[in-house]
Design a protein that fits this description.
4 helices; about 20% helix; single chain; globular; alpha+beta; Thrombin, subunit H
């Protein structure tokens, strides 16, 4: 049903790869998010929470660099070295769960990147990002926005994103106490579509801002386009809600592999939440960003 549409939408949808590390840990944690380009000027659409992660990179890494300098300044002969370290840790708010390093890699977007120009929506999980400093935009086809106001309950739509971080071209550099990208390993992750039926609309009747789908959006698909079978973009994947069904099972005795066991289960329905296409189009119009629509 969505075969041709997925092929079309893939032309302007791209992954954001990220790597991070928490305090006192050497394990590098991979992550993904999604964005899609809307015009040849380098403007792309994604979620505001994705933009916040992009913006956080510089401050997060700068703080850790400053922290290490203070730690290194403690004299090795200082008898209160542990206490001094604890004071510096408290100053920066670091504990074993604190993310201290984060780096992003924008896959197959531009040939060169010097920065971004951004617009974040005040009330919705929506953001616009303009890539800067490139000579060649590695996108040649751009989306056509359909009329999301025509959607009804029961319509089937699809989302495209990069929810599974299978890339492994990164490492922890012990000598530098730093995480870094490498030229070795797998640098890509597979695109992944997931469909769903329109179950409800979010917002007041005259101010609809969200579309609820019968299947969840997956982690890493945030910022990916929502589209119909013709490949027309009608929204953007933003989050997933979890509704408790009330079919709870506690300490129920079952037999598994010939053995008697007691199990518990708490059932939830996971529903995708997408930004309504009309909100995206109005936000782009507000900032004079060009895009194509169905005639």
């Amino acid at each position: 049903m969505f075969r041709d549409a997925i092929e079309e939408v893939s032309k302007f949808t791209r992954p954001i790869h990220s790597i991070s590390r928490t305090y006192n840990q050497t394990d590098v944690v991979p992550g993904t998010a999604t964005l899609f380009f809307v015009n040849k000027d380098g403007w792309a659409v994604t979620c505001k929470h994705v933009l916040n992660q992009i913006i956080a990179v510089q401050k997060l890494n700068k703080n850790y660099t400053a922290f290490k300098k203070e730690i290194d300044s403690i004299s090795t002969s200082n008898k209160n070295k542990k206490e001094e370290r604890k004071k510096i840790e408290q100053k920066y708010g670091y504990n074993d769960k604190s993310t201290v390093q984060l780096k992003n890699n924008f896959r197959n977007c531009v040939d060169n990147l010097t920065g971004f120009k951004c617009h974040a929506h005040k009330t919705r999980d929506l953001a616009l990002i303009k890539f800067q400093g490139f000579k060649n935009l590695l996108i040649k086809h751009f989306p056509t926005f359909g009329n999301a106001d025509d959607l009804k309950q029961g319509d089937y739509l699809c989302r495209l994103g990069y929810p599974f971080p299978e890339f492994n071209n990164y490492k922890y550099n012990l000598a530098k106490d730093d995480i870094e990208w490498t030229k070795k390993g797998k640098s890509g992750s597979p695109k992944f579509p997931i469909e769903g039926m329109v179950t409800r609309f979010i917002g007041k009747p005259r101010n609809i801002y969200g579309i609820e789908l019968s299947r969840p959006g997956l982690k890493g698909q945030s910022g990916g386009p929502l589209f119909n079978k013709r490949g027309e973009v009608v929204g953007m994947q933003a989050s997933t809600k979890h509704l408790h069904l009330g079919f709870d099972i506690e300490e129920k005795e079952i037999r598994s592999n010939g053995e008697s066991k007691k199990v518990s289960d708490y059932s939830f329905l996971h529903l995708g939440v997408c930004m309504h296409g009309s909100v995206i189009k109005k936000f782009m119009e507000k900032h004079d960003i060009s895009f194509e629509t169905v005639e």
